[in-house]
Amino acid sequence: MRNLSSLGENLETSNYIWENCFALSISIFGLILFLYFLGNLQMYMQWTTSKSIKNWDKLRRKMKSSQRQKQHKSMISWISKKKFDSRTKRLIMDNINQRYEEGEDVNVENLIPDLSPELQKDVKRHICLPLLKNLKSIKDNGLAKRTQMLLKICDSLQPKFYNEHCYIVKEGDPIDAVFLITNGIVWTYSSNNGEGSDSRHAERLEKGQYFGGKLLEWILTPASVDMRNLSILPVSSKTLKTHTKVEAFALMAYDLKEILESKLSLLGHEKLQSKAAIRVQRIWRQHRAKTDDDVVQDRAASL
Hints:
This is Cyclic nucleotide-binding domain-containing protein. 58% of the residues lie in helices and 13% in strands.
């Protein structure tokens, strides 16, 4: 056995032929046993590796199954909160299940971007149309009853998702979008640069509220042609910061301007001139009223 393990290196041979044959057989047999040992070792390593891979695959499938169940529950909860009709619910479920079958990752918290374009349009209209109709600037300009225009605005809305304690707009930044809050809590506050006794105050915005009304007024009732071309934008006097995870929809200034211009182009040249004349008269009357008030105040001050 010692000679086999050393492949016959310890054997001392003579000129006798049978001693040489014995040493040669010991060397060959020891080499065969060594190769046999290496083969069994390789097979054992492959078996243990395949077993560990199977166990890992089984664990991964189990974790993936539990994750999908959790995502499925979150998706059901999101759908129930939005109060979709049965048809929309079925389409959303089919769309997400199809993405699961194709092996694509789906973020339940950011569910809307994973939907098909047509389904995204239906979802945005269902969620945002009531909010748009309740906006003060929309009501004041008589747009609340113009359903087709509001539907186009809904289609142009961009879904936004923010983590907690995240800045959306900072004080002094230009406002280029109106944010409709559909889920979560947002704080809006102003520092007033340290002026006044109440140098800091905050306002809580929740589902159904919005931020950026100044931009809506800026576009819907422009004081000059430059504003209509968006060559300048209003500056935010407040900071908008999330308190929890927030789901919102952004109405970009450029999209709103395009929709309004497309609607104005459908009025025709004569109606457009008439509306422009009415708008100019309104602005002139407001300016004249302010001027008259200034004259009265100056006379009162002189007396």
